[in-house]
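Batch job 17 of 40 flagged for manual review because the log was empty.
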Amino acid sequence: MWTRGTVPVYWNDDYKKYKYIRQPISEVERLDWKRQGWYHHNVSGEMYDSRNPMPDYVEPLSKMLNLSKCGYVFYKMTSMIVMPPHIDKYEKYSEVFSVPYDNVIRALVFLEDWKPGHYFEIDNQGIVNWSAGDYVLWEPGVIHAASNVGKDTRYTLQITGSYA
């Protein structure tokens, strides 16, 4: 199950200056995607996560979404990055926050207005034309994908938590 909504935009664009790092995907996932025909070199964007200092606005934002025990990841998707359809496993989050898989909630907050070539898909439904502050929130087991085939970088904030 998933839902959409909007929160007020009260952040600046400092997230563009963060030191983003491309995190490796698991070998199992890489091979599975390759079997499905995803042969491109990079299948994920770059991340700035909760191991780094977070801006003051992330905690109030998670409260607006009624989430607690939150981990945060700013996600930078440059041009020609495609994240194939997948289901999140939340293994590290569940370990760190002691939240069972079935109680995990993921929110994706769009930090900027949609630009041509930006795409998000959830449960086989494509989403485009979003505005800054729009979000998608989903429960475990929901398939989703993302891509940027446009010329402008796509920035989002992933909030992983459980209902407060």
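Reviewer: the log was empty due to a logging misconfiguration, but the result itself is present. The chain has three helices and ten strands. Unflagging and moving on to job 18.
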